[in-house]
Known about the structure:
alpha+beta; three-stranded antiparallel sheet; 13 strands
Amino acid sequence: MSTSTAFLPGARAREKLAAGKALRATVPRSSHGGWTAAPGRPDPVAVIEASNAGRLARLVPIRMERMAESAFGFYRGAAAIMAADLAHTPVSGVNVQISGDAHCMNFGGFATPERNLLFDLNDFDETMPGPWEWDLKRLVTSIVVAARHNDFSARDAKIAALAATQAYRTRMQELAAASALEVWYARLDATDILDAARSAGARRRRGRIRDQAATDSVRAAVAKFTHVVDGARRFVDDPPTLYHSTATDDDDFDVAEIVGTYAWNLPPDVRVLLDRYTLLDCAIKVVGVGSVGTRCAVALFAADDDDAFILQIKEALPSVLSPHLGPSEFTNHGERVVRGHRVMQAASDVFLGWALSSTRSFYVRQFRDMKTSADLEAMDAYQLREYAQYCAWALAGAHARAGDAAAIAGYAGKSTVLDRALLAFALDYADQNQRDYERFAAATSAPA
Length: 448
């Protein structure tokens, strides 16, 4: 994954590298190691229940059920818990735009406007400016939790987690020496991941994923989720995860209104494209783990009988980071998500935009446009290690695009001091996550 550069750090970059290195005097890299709960740590079950406030009540049980399935499922939905815990951990003082929820299932493949398949961070619901360490700690811990979920050995979990920390650190060193334009244009193409596979079996599996994504996924999504009823194309109801809303549902959002305000926030050229399509139908669509219960929908557009596509509409709530980092500069949280998305991701969906309906914020993007995701449960230990490296490589790129790569690289350094500290944190926090999960599972299974 390493890429050579024709540039060595210039004078300004050398100054920033030195400034980053100097931060170790006040916040040693070893201080990031380990985890101990702060006094008065909130009850994790209470935090989850509080995060359900304002969500669609009939969908909340789905969220709770998905989180109760496993410690890894719980971790995916517990961003608010970890944000509160991270607020008590050391930070170097270098802030960038961060994801806020950079666990390993929030990375994957997606299409660029040029129809290339890239691998990158793909979830920005919690994005805000903040400490880069928070994203990296959430990623590395997720690797340990995933390894345990797959019943890998403690040694394999450590190796995978260290692979992530090393990949992030060494990639940031490369980006610190690159030009600003090189950093901005850097990306991880699916072909690079395919070529890097060490075994024929891995190459075949990745090749199938790439080939499936390269097919007309837009038409495939329309064919899978819609059908023609009385001459009109409509979404196929599949409750409770896909269904048409009714007046009695009290969903408190109007898709047609959202589409209208969304269109006005698009660049003029994209608005011209969208104007060629007509909104035919919309439905509630439950997605993810942490997002379940928020107001999410899919909207079907068509220009002709065989020319249709789907937009995904997601409610944007205040970031789980805001209680610890302060309020966002954006009053519309959809705009907060989109702005962070465009800064951090190597390439963004052409239809990405934000909207406002009544007092609720939303963001919009194309649904399943060459989107791929990892099957963690099908991975062996070596594949998880590779995957951890790709995630960390992408995260370093996102942070470098959004902030100061040289300062982070200077602080992280070239030794394994930070790697070992982050591993110690991840192991301890994975233990904490297991305890929180067991408490949550017991609470949700108890009779009402």
